[in-house]
Specification:
Helix content is 35%, strand content 5%. By secondary structure, the chain is mainly alpha-helical. The radius of gyration is 14 Å and the shape is globular.
Length: 121
């Protein structure tokens, strides 16, 4: 696992007042070979790989209040509601938080597929 001090996302979250309790990469989780690069996956994870990664994080951090998924190549909209139900906690992902912010700015109604983000105003 990468030490928290070496990764930008935990530093940013800490500056925002969040306590990061677990950080891992796909390789750390044993889902891809350590020598793999995101380019090997066409710069976008499959929903199956994203789901496995989210489950791995949930199992590694049972006391976490939320799961943050970073990485622009991770598309979670189609799996978000299901994964939140499975992990029993909110999942904040780069792609869906962008959709949420746009919808909020344009005063649009959020769809239930947005998971717990649908309830935020």
């Amino acid at each position: 696992m990468n030490p928290i001090g070496e990764m930008a996302s935990p530093r940013f979250l800490r500056l925002c007042g969040f306590n990061t309790i677990h950080v891992s990469t796909l390789a750390d989780q044993g889902l891809i070979a350590p020598s793999s690069k995101m380019a090997d996956y066409g710069w976008s994870m499959t929903p199956e790989l994203a789901s496995k990664s989210i489950r791995a994080v949930a199992e590694a951090s049972p006391d976490a209040e939320a799961i943050v998924v970073t990485g622009a190549g991770t598309r979670t909209l189609d799996i978000l509601a299901h994964m939140e139900a499975q992990t029993k906690r909110p999942i904040i992902a780069a792609d869906t938080i962008l959709y949420w912010a746009i919808a909020r700015e344009l005063d649009l109604t959020l769809l239930p597929v947005m998971g717990s983000l649908s309830n935020l105003t």
